[in-house]
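Sequence in, structure out. First:
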Amino acid sequence: MAKQTIDIGTTPNDGTGDALRDAFDKVNDNTDESYLTSRILVNQTNKDTTLGGTIDSTKEYFLDGIIDMGATQIEIPSTGITINGFDFNTSGLTSSENSYTMFVNAVGGSGDVLWKDFKIEVTGTSSQVLDIEADTGFEAFEIDRINFNDCTSIGEIDGYRQGLETGTGRFGGTPNLILSGTWLGGYFIETSIVRSLTDGAYSLYEEGTSFVMNSRFRSNQNIDLPASASFIDFQSSNFTNPSTVQLTEMIISRAGVFDASDSNYTPNINKSDLVSNWSNNNGLPNTFEGGSIGVTTETATTINTIGVFETLTATLWTTNDLQHFDNPSGSQLRHLGNTPREYKIIADLTIDAGSNEVLTVRVVKYDDSAATTSTVLDQTRQVNALVGGRDVAFFSININTELDQNDYIYLEVANVTATTNVTVEVDSYYIIEQR
């Protein structure tokens, strides 16, 4: 229906405008058009016939106050539900019933869940806010400025495409959320705070049945946990792509105390796992992609021909703190991830050879996609004629390169002036680190 414009006449009191009854009839029509046809007001009196009845997914359900749902459940249809309020102080849904679930699944599955500007309090024993499964797997769970107060559990979401929290709060209770099934997208928490929780062996976000996430789980939350609770209880196998557990600029403490070595924050996943990308956190470890490899037992590298490069060998190359890298063999360091791809190589090598001979060390990159090698850097040094039988050349390397997934770096050496064998000494090493 089009807007009904009231004719107010040409001049005050000239008697040419709409009659009073006609004017108010237009007011009623405009009110119906603007509000009643697009918004359903929910209050304590009508909650059983509005939220407790058959949900109309074409309407916004607006919470006019704090509404005690009692034992009344809200069934989310396959076409979804939209609930808004004034704010999380003025509008809300509560229940203290035991063994109660506030939001339940429709037969066949539920649709989009869109909530904004209200609070939820589900405080009964063995109760939870929701237990829903996606209808098609392309549904969204998106909540904006929602506070969960003293909730026994937030519940379980199964097989949604994506989740988004902005401006959420968890205050009191044991507000665990279980993610189950295959998520085609990810779960993103932006600007969220957690405080004053009840202690217990639970996690804010937990792996549920057959949980697999094809995109990222990202959080920058400000969290204070009680003595036994965890932040996330996921495993690397829950994520299909590298660097998709993204914990960035988080603040996390336990009873107000910061301890980045607290392994119970994330009991089944850690900073160095291939799926982890943790950065700029306070109270939580950070991921430093790269690592080092060095000589711990020497052996000579055989030089067969003057000026021809040979793989730099040692009896034992030992790695340290490899994150998103591994060591297939020898001096190789292989990139297992797909992002970032820009790295710095820093090397400090001492190589024994004949006095005054000239050596060249080469940093070599193997490109897995092309199955080819290329030179990242050649560095040439003369062997110093030192006092005694030890004549060595010193190599100090600092060079940038790009490494895609399964590309790797290794070292070669050539004796430019003789066929004297060379030996890279113990404590020689090189480092790969993200630029």
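Second:
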Amino acid sequence: MELVLRRRYYPKGTNGRLTAAGAIVCFTIELPWENNQRNISCIPEGRYLLSRRFTEKRGDHIIVTNVRGRDSILFHPANDALKELRGCIAPVSVLTGEGLGGSSRKACEVLNNYVFSAEYLKEDVFLNITNDGKS
């Protein structure tokens, strides 16, 4: 399965629309682009393999693998990128501003269901991050 994340970059955050087979799964918020600097930047555009990971703190969640120069890039709930993210991606149900969104836990559940269902079917899940060309 291929998920496509089309981003728009702003000074206070990065907003995205995540789709599967052309249908919207959720929206996303991330930190602004700061040349892939650890803890202060969103990750570079590209194609990444997604995997399931379990920790006591977050339970089952999605990790983005093989990000050049980075590790531990997760999909996890957050509604304010600058206050709650350190390079990860937060699914949100609605975008409310630059790097801001709402109902993140609900959007995270929807995304996890997509990814974990494909994994159950023994299907690799890839994330293709692109610039939507608008800002």
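Remark: Residues 104-120 form the longest helix (17 residues).
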